[in-house]
Design a protein that fits this description.
alpha+beta, Alpha-Beta Plaits, globular, binds alpha-D-galactopyranose
Length: 380
């Protein structure tokens, strides 16, 4: 099978009649635990995966940006001097990143490129962060800007928040920028401290795509964020990260029932995520699995961002003897779940869970083992 790298290089060569000067790869991610905690200044434990956006490109002498994606129809072309918003489309992520560089005071150069990715779109695996970080790495490369992963992740997050309009946290951009091969990263979303943690020996991480795609996620996501902010304001703190479970329990009855549930998820999820990192470091797969299961229940019942398909998939996974734990991953409402399993039984797990899930739904699932990879990088 031709690699994505070869595909983008060949397409560039065909379009411009010469080879590209650079190739960049930026990965999607799967989050093992710590969901909807990042915008509460909390903790997350994602890993960058071996599914990514690749771009072959060269600098230009003018201020034009010309990018053709082999995944979407319309080529993207704009002038860095006059970046203008248009209707929502993948092009807006590219423009948004260029805009965020300019806003931050960087003078970036024009470029021309061809891109393609294999992160499924809208599936909870951060295809948009992968696109943003691929573009950030490309602009940084042609403009000779040092690659500081946290700074670049913040810039890409600004593009997503203020250009695209999704008030997402920092997790997706930071793990796509700073991922490490073989490791998940515990991220403290307040300080942006990263603690690389290897996957326990003999385990595999499986992405379980329900075959459903989320709709209207933006409004539901932004609404959850507002509810969390309301809870933080009630406790008189800047973010729910600062509320302990004891403090929460002492006053939870004074909270509106919906806000109470949202806050309970975030506060308990932060605890679970830190415990999961410890369990992972200790190779305690049983405990890690239990925490993942508890996370799913909390997302389903308290944060209310799961879906029937996700619940069926998680239950199907948990029925298999190889499974330590499973949960929905990403923003929710559809897309993917993630399971931690005994690597030796991976083939049987994929086969059986596909069957169990298919027996209960009309959706077409896709299950695949993922490997933790490096973050956004220049390949050549
Ligand atoms: C989306 C957002 C992230 C994070 C997750 C939920 O992926 O982009 O910032 O909030 O949802 O954990």
């Amino acid at each position: 099978m031709t690699s994505l790298k070869d595909i983008v290089v060949n397409a560039y060569q065909a379009q411009y009649g010469e080879p590209p000067q650079f190739v960049v790869r930026a990965p999607g991610r799967v989050n093992l635990i710590g969901e909807h905690t990042d915008y509460n200044d909390g903790f997350v434990l994602p890993m960058a995966i071996n599914r990514a956006v690749w771009i072959a490109f060269s600098p230009r002498d003018d201020s034009q940006v010309a990018v053709r994606s082999l995944d979407f129809d319309d080529p993207v072309q704009f002038d860095l001097q006059h970046i203008q918003k248009a209707e929502p489309s993948p092009a807006e992520y590219i423009k948004g990143v260029a805009w965020a560089f300019c806003e931050a005071g960087f003078r970036i150069k024009g470029l021309q490129g061809v891109l393609k990715g294999d992160v499924p779109i809208g599936a909870g695996l951060s295809s948009s962060a992968a696109l943003e970080l691929a573009m950030a790495r490309a602009f940084a490369t042609v403009s000779e800007i040092d690659w500081d992963a946290s700074k670049m992740a913040l810039l890409a997050q600004k593009a997503e928040n203020d250009w695209v309009g999704m008030k997402s946290g920092i997790m997706d951009q930071l793990i796509s920028a700073a991922g490490q091969a073989g490791h998940a990263l515990l991220i403290d979303c307040r300080t942006l401290d990263l603690t690389p943690t290897p996957l326990p020996n003999g385990t595999a991480v499986v992405v379980l795509d329900t075959g459903t795609r989320r709709g209207l996620v933006e409004s539901a996501y932004n609404e959850r964020r507002e509810q969390c902010e309301a809870a933080a304001a009630f406790f008189g703190v800047s973010a729910l990260r600062d509320v302990t479970l004891e403090q929460f329990k002492a006053r939870e009855n004074e909270l509106d029932p919906i806000i109470r549930k949202r806050a309970r998820h975030v506060i308990t999820e932060n605890e679970r995520t830190c415990q999961a990192k410890d369990a992972m470091s200790a190779g305690d797969t049983k405990r890690l699995g239990e925490l993942m299961i508890a996370s799913h229940i909390s997302l389903r019942d308290d944060f209310e961002v799961s879906s029937d398909a996700l619940n069926i998939m998680v239950e199907s996974a948990q029925q298999h003897p190889a499974c330590y734990g499973a949960r929905m991953t990403g923003a929710g409402f559809g897309g993917c779940a993630v399971a931690l399993i005994d690597a030796a039984q991976a083939d049987d797990f994929v086969q059986q869970v596909t069957q169990t899930y298919t027996n209960q739904t009309d959706n077409t699932p896709a299950l695949y083992v993922c490997h933790p990879t490096a973050g956004a990088e220049v390949i050549h």
